[in-house]
Amino acid sequence: MTDRPIAVVGASAAGITAAEALRRAGWTGPLTLIGDEPHLPYDRPPLSKQLLHGAWEPERLLLRTAEQLDPLGLDLRLGTRATGLDVATRTLTLAGGERLACAGVIVATGVAARTLPAADGLAGVFTLRTLDDALALRGDLAGGPRRLVVVGNGVLGCEAAAVARELGHDVTLVGREPVPMAAAVGRGIGELLAEEHRARGVRLLTAEVAGFEVAAGSAVGVAADRTAAQGAPPRVSGVRLAGGELLPADLVLLAIGSAPAVGWLTDPALDITDGLRCDTYCAAAPGIYAAGDVARWEHPEHGRPLRFEHRMNATEQAMAAARNLVAELAAEGALPGGAEGAPPPERRPFAPVPYFWSDQYALKLQAYGLTTGADEVETTVLDRAARRAVALFGRDGRAVGVLACGLPPRQIRALRAVVAGPGPWEEARAAVRAATAAA
């Protein structure tokens, strides 16, 4: 038995889900939830959609109110960063120097938005990862029609561009790839999305960003430093492309991807290459587990390490990591006395059928399985004008993912079964045709 806490590092969807799952699994001892933001745990997908649009206010994003958290008996550390983890002793170091010896740790620190060095200290340039990010961008968009340049045509960039156009802003979407979201949805579906964005008035460009212009017209790094020294940050006035073209801009959103938040994990016992490396049980080391966007774990069905930045995976993996950690502590005889009377859970491999969705305008995209890293993609356009289509993704002769755009829920559920295995490519093709025959 132990009186050491289990610490969950990261107070977003994966973190709060892990805390609740730990209690359900039988952990009655101290439980610490650490988050570097000052806010109660909130949902992130609405940041680029309902919150940015103004349809929702921040309170609606809360995953749990303070009253709902009370029964968990949490030692809630908001506005607190973890700065280190000693794997051998399971000891966390927090900002300020506090050391917290733990019975176990679940890492759920998620990802951090990537940015560009030239954007540092430049007013009017945003990323969109946190609640504060979204509120700041929403506030500037609320000031009247703006010229918005979105840099990055992945999922986040496309969603934000759609919202900005619906709000009446002039939007240019710039991406390195010629087809929006191609890495996530394939070229065929990406071309449908491009058609929809153009039809809605979004300008699509394929280019790299070379830098920014400030309001006075001087390049960032010259006028920017001088203006900052006078006490007012320079404000963006344009985006300079690698080919020389200048895009006038009142606002710029950098949606150029993210990086797993693992910089604080410096113990050499951990592999932090593209996230925190875990086994099939979501364990990175004895007593150390990970869940959500930060976790790269061995998927038993696909036989290789995977990492997903999707909301559903955060919840499912957090539950699996919590259950498996409690099972490990039970085997060590480290459960608090109050949990000894209940049979502990058994460790089980985490083998989900991944799911993600994206909403743009009236379109809803939903995908099951793996849609990235495919060596074969077959897209069937069912109704081009209505943007209804389905894409099947294969790897090494097996169907590993399926994505639908504009299909009803009944057909979506049927498509999930196609890649739940995953199974042979030709069988999956026939199943997709059958599932969409009446579409």
Question: What can you see in these coordinates?
Answer:
β10, α5 and β11 form a beta-alpha-beta unit. The chain folds into three domains: 189 residues, FAD/NAD(P)-binding domain (3-Layer(bba) Sandwich), CATH 3.50.50; 135 residues, FAD/NAD(P)-binding domain, CATH 3.50.50.60; 74 residues, 2-Layer Sandwich (Enolase-like, domain 1). It has 439 residues and is of the alpha/beta class. The strands form seven sheets. A six-stranded mixed sheet has the order 3-2-1-7-20-19, with helices on one face. Strands 23, 24, 25, 26, 27 and 28 form a six-stranded antiparallel sheet that branches. About 3% of the residues have low confidence.
Describe the secondary structure blueprint for this structure.
Elements: E1 6-9, H1 13-25, E2 31-35, H2 50-53, H3 66-69, E3 74-78, E4 82-86, E5 91-94, E6 99-101, E7 104-107, E8 111-113, E9 125-126, H4 131-141, E10 147-151, H5 155-166, E11 170-175, H6 182-199, E12 203-206, E13 209-214, H7 223-229, E14 236-241, E15 246-248, E16 251-254, E17 258-260, E18 276-278, E19 283-285, E20 288-290, E21 295-299, E22 304-306, H8 311-332, E23 355-360, E24 363-369, E25 376-383, E26 388-395, E27 398-405, H9 409-419, E28 423-424, H10 425-435
Parallel strand pairs: 1-2, 1-7, 2-3, 7-20, 9-16, 10-11, 10-16, 11-12, 18-21
Antiparallel strand pairs: 4-5, 5-6, 8-17, 13-14, 14-15, 19-20, 21-22, 23-24, 24-27, 25-26, 26-27, 27-28
Helix pairs in contact: 1-8, 9-10
